[in-house]
Design a protein that fits this description.
By secondary structure, the chain is mainly alpha-helical. The chain has one domain. The protein is built from six helices and no strands.
Amino acid sequence: MDAIPDIVDLVLYLLGVLSLLTWTIMLFKFWEFRSNAAANRRLSEAFSGLSQLQELPGTVSSESGTLSEVARAGLEELKALENSAAALDAKDRREMLHHALRQQIHLCQARLENGMAVLASVGSTSPFIGLFGTVWGIMGALKSITASGSAGLDVVAGPIGEALIATAMGIAAAIPAVLAYNYFLRKVRLAVTEMEHFADRFMHLVIRSKSGGR
């Protein structure tokens, strides 16, 4: 009998931890996307004014956003191709450069998605954890009724109250997690689209600078 309230308390503590974890991830992701957006905006503005690929390294080195990572990956691949002893034509070089850019985009996407699986898990499991606490609390109430032989309010109010709190906390933990997951999922998709567009601009700059044909 004494173990029943302890289980409900454990459920409440667990939901509290999950809620705290959700808000911690949310704040970190907000900061991450905001910083990344600011860095990408600066690099994109600087990139628009470039006419030759040789002007890019100095611009890239001063930024830390995902676009600068894509640009650095492209520059490193170009350098590797220039130092390669293999006989590659311009088409092969462009394909290898495009592959390097795509690979870096995937790496950046994976990093931007860090923590989102936790949000999805909290959003999908918290209501069921709260429901478990509710069911356990009702079991406690029923056992109290059986032991006392009375169904008075003073007997069932405590366990039922805990049960309802568990349900409420489960919903309270799930809603922010689901909303945050959907919000950041859209942010990741927009960031990937931005990186893909930048990769195309990078390729065009390479072709315009005639660096891809060497």
